[in-house]
Design a protein that fits this description.
With 217 residues, the chain is of the alpha+beta class. It has a single domain (8-126, 167-215), classed as Pnp Oxidase, Chain A (Roll). Helix content is 25%, strand content 32%. It has five helices and nine strands, in the order αββββαββαααβββ. The chain has helices at 24-37, 81-88, 116-124, 128-136, 146-159, and strands at residues 45-51, 57-63, 66-68, 71-77, 91-98, 103-113, 171-185, 193-198, 211-215. Strands 1, 2, 3, 4, 5, 6, 7, 8 and 9 form a nine-stranded antiparallel sheet that branches. A hairpin with a 7-residue loop joins strand 7 and strand 8. Helix 4 packs across helix 5. The protein binds flavin mononucleotide. Residues 42, 45, 58, 60-63, 74-77, 80-82, 139-140 line the site of flavin mononucleotide (FMN). It holds the Pfam family PNPOx_N. Residues 117-129 have a biased composition (Basic and acidic residues). Residues 171-217 form the Pyridoxine 5'-phosphate oxidase dimerisation C-terminal domain.
Length: 217
């Protein structure tokens, strides 16, 4: 396990308040495109953090499937552990790590279910067998063995053979509405650059402007 004793130098390229776009979501899009162009595997993968009803935190990887001024869209099973956690506590975090670029984006905010029509649109865009998989897995529930899981998938494939697969009502999208977005750039000697955008939301749900601050590494 050589990696445990390695001390990488994260380079000189800097991250300056004046170089970042004023809108952090636009800035995020630019970094995502940079990660795509750099050939990073699954550049849209991020670690989603939730807190459940018992105040237990849990992280897992999911794929970003959309981003616009409203926030960050991903799709999953609403009855999964993450779905149950979000129902109890909508506070979530997202961590994108593009390590070979010495870049990280950390997001905090809350998750809300997207409009069912948006989930329908995304479901329709998926390959047939992925749509079937949404029917054949009760995500996060225990199952006896692989054979039983394969049997569930086979049964669903047969059920939807030569027909359109409707979206299960327990499967769909969430949008992470961000209140904090931090851009992190690794620098030499662990003197990294961290620029954080923060906004608040008033009782009517109206957001303030983004406030920008530099954080110590
Ligand atoms: C690269 C990668 C991408 C993944 N993308 C998704 C996804 O978009 N949606 C999803 O529900 N699970 C995705 N998963 C699986 C989740 O990490 C997780 O196992 C699953 O959602 C169940 O999580 P939960 O029990 O905490 O709800 C992905 C896993 C990996 C490694």
């Amino acid at each position: 396990m050589d990696s445990l004793n390695r001390h990488e130098d994260y380079g000189q390229e800097s991250l300056d308040e004046t170089h970042l776009l004023a809108d952090p979501i636009e800035q995020f899009k630019q970094w995502l495109v940079d990660a795509e162009e750099a050939g990073i595997y699954e550049p849209n993968a991020f670690v989603l953090g939730t807190v459940d009803e018992q105040n237990q935190s849990r992280s897992r990887t999911v794929l970003l499937k959309g981003v616009d001024e409203r926030g960050f869209f991903f799709a999953t099973n609403y009855l999964s552990r993450k779905g149950e956690a979000v129902a109890a506590n909508p506070s979530v975090s997202a961590a994108f790590g593009w390590y070979s670029m010495y870049r990280q984006v950390l997001i905090q905010g809350f998750a809300e279910r997207v409009d069912p029509s948006e989930s329908d649109d995304y479901h329709s865009s998926r390959p047939h067998d992925s749509q079937v998989a949404a029917w054949s897995s009760h995500q996060s529930q225990p199952i006896d063995n692989r054979t039983a899981l394969d049997a569930q998938f086979a049964a669903a494939l047969e059920r939807f053979e030569n027909t359109d697969v409707p979206r299960p009502d327990y499967w769909g999208g969430y949008r992470i509405v961000a209140t904090r977005i931090e851009f992190w750039k690794g620098r030499s000697n662990r003197m990294h650059d961290r620029i954080e955008f923060v906004r608040t939301r008033d009782a009517d749900g109206k957001f303030s402007e983004w406030h920008v601050q530099r954080l110590q590494p």
